[in-house]
């Protein structure tokens, strides 16, 4: 299994809207496996294909404490179950070391294809619902910093640019 490079903000490729997967084949399953390895290695709970510079509608996540419940979502769509939103502190593998409160729907209904291309439906709440919405945003080219004020977003952008410069100079 290959560990993939994770794009970091403010890389413009993170703004690319992902295309639907037409056929779930061995190439897509290999991408899923590589994304799961990458996510676990980075100690994350979710990863969208956009974050590894593959602009297809594929998401992996695992919100379990022991990384034992991987969830694969191909061509995901969600519907809020109710109007209530709640802020939760969010981080992102593409914006390391930065966190912010982002309001999300408390519960959602998810429809997607699994690793084998079989359709499934799932009702989610709590952290899983938050994560589904966060990763779905990635497929749309949206980052959690887009929910922040321009001042906070610009501050994070400058810190990330400084981080990238330091990494290049090292």
Automatic annotation (TrEMBL):
Q: Which PANTHER family match?
A: PEPTIDE DEFORMYLASE
Q: Write down the SUPFAM superfamilies for this protein, in alphabetical order.
A: Peptide deformylase
- Entry function: Removes the formyl group from the N-terminal Met of newly synthesized proteins. Requires at least a dipeptide for an efficient rate of reaction. N-terminal L-methionine is a prerequisite for activity but the enzyme has broad specificity at other positions.
Under the heading InterPro entries, the entry gives: Peptide_deformylase (IPR023635), Peptide_deformylase_sf (IPR036821)
Which amino acid positions bind Fe cation, per UniProt? 92, 134, 138
Q: Which GO terms describe its molecular function?
A: peptide deformylase activity
What protein name applies here? Peptide deformylase
Q: What is stated as this protein's family in its record?
A: Belongs to the polypeptide deformylase family.
Q: What cofactor requirement does the entry state?
A: Fe(2+)
Q: What is its EC number?
A: 3.5.1.88
Q: What HAMAP family does the entry give?
A: Pep_deformylase (MF_00163)
Could you tell me what the cofactor note in this record states?
Binds 1 Fe(2+) ion.
Q: Which reaction does it catalyse?
A: N-terminal N-formyl-L-methionyl-[peptide] + H2O = N-terminal L-methionyl-[peptide] + formate
Query: What taxonomic classification does the UniProt entry list for its organism?
Result: Bacteria, Pseudomonadati, Pseudomonadota, Gammaproteobacteria, Oceanospirillales
Which terms are listed as keywords in the entry?
Hydrolase, Iron, Metal-binding, Protein biosynthesis
In this protein, the active site sits at: 135
UniProt enzyme class: hydrolase
């Amino acid at each position: 299994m290959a560990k993939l490079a994770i794009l970091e903000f403010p890389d413009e490729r993170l703004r690319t809207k992902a295309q639907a997967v037409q056929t779930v084949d061995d190439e897509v399953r290999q991408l899923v496996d590589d994304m799961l390895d990458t996510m676990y290695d980075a100690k994350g709970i979710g990863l969208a294909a956009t974050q590894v510079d593959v602009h297809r509608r594929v998401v992996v996540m695992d919100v379990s404490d022991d990384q034992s419940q991987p969830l694969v979502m191909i061509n995901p769509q969600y519907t809020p179950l109710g109007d209530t939103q709640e802020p939760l502190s969010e981080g992102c593998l593409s914006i390391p070391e930065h966190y912010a409160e982002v309001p999300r729907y408390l519960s959602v209904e998810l429809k997607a294809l699994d690793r084998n291309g079989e359709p499934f439906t799932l009702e989610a709440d709590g952290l899983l619902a938050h994560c589904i919405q966060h990763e779905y945003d990635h497929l749309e080219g949206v980052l959690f910093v887009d929910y922040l004020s321009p001042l906070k977003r610009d501050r994070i952008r400058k810190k990330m640019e400084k981080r990238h410069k330091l990494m290049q100079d090292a």
